[in-house]
Write a structure and sequence with these properties.
Length: about 220
């Protein structure tokens, strides 16, 4: 007889990978990393393997668990981190080619790259309006982060990019909180972290009471 094994929740892994990589990069975008003497390229390893590979794997397991939104979001941002790491890695030659074309071309190219992710993030934000407060805030602040970073690169305004770094740090903290709320509960700790639902009350009743039947409207 075939045996079926229930999958664990890949969400905390994807959120943690996103949070840590975003936090480290945002520390440098905000200027704090430089003040501490940390080189910006320290994020490359994280972007390839934690924010990139681990988040991509979390996205694939979300597909297996039947969560299309989680799968699309985690896989997309895993791809974002890998592509960003490729830009910063000399072996790929992306940044060298851009810099050879001039600083203006580099700024505009990176601005377009970030603009695309700002648009994608806004689409994800619209898909979180009836999920929970944490996810809604996460994508709202992430979209603001991408918009500020895009504007800072496009106009060569370091202070705008620095503001994007601070928003990115706050975004990372939200992602960590959501991951912690999934990991920490009364089954394994002395407390649970709240994450209020934004779903309509009828949907919440259906989840809490599987035998509850809603009237169909033709």
């Amino acid at each position: 007889m075939a045996q079926f094994r229930k999958f664990g929740n890949p969400g905390p892994l994807g959120l943690s990978a996103f949070a840590l990589t975003t936090f480290v990069l945002s520390l440098h975008n905000g200027g704090i990393g430089q003040k501490l003497g940390s080189p910006p390229n320290v994020v490359v390893g994280l972007a390839f393997f934690y924010g990139g590979l681990c988040q991509l794997l979390a996205g694939m397991w979300e597909f297996a668990a039947g969560n299309t939104f989680g799968a699309t979001a985690f896989s997309s941002y895993g791809g974002f981190w890998m592509s960003y790491a490729a830009i910063l890695t000399p072996w790929f030659g992306v940044l060298d080619a851009l810099e050879a074309a001039g600083s203006t071309v580099t700024s505009h190219a990176l601005g377009i790259f970030l603009l695309g992710w700002a648009i994608m993030t806004f689409i994800f934000f619209l898909a979180t309006l009836r999920t929970n407060l944490g996810m809604c805030l996460l994508f709202a602040f992430l979209d603001i982060t991408f918009i500020l970073l895009c504007a800072g690169e496009w106009n060569s305004k370091p202070r705008v990019s620095q503001a994007g770094g601070y928003f990115g740090m706050f975004t990372a903290l939200i992602a960590w909180y959501i991951a912690a709320s999934d990991l920490i509960g009364h089954h394994n700790s002395f407390f649970a972290l709240p994450n209020p639902s934004l779903a309509p009350r009828s949907s919440q009743r259906a989840i809490n009471d599987p035998d509850h039947k809603t009237e169909e409207i033709d």
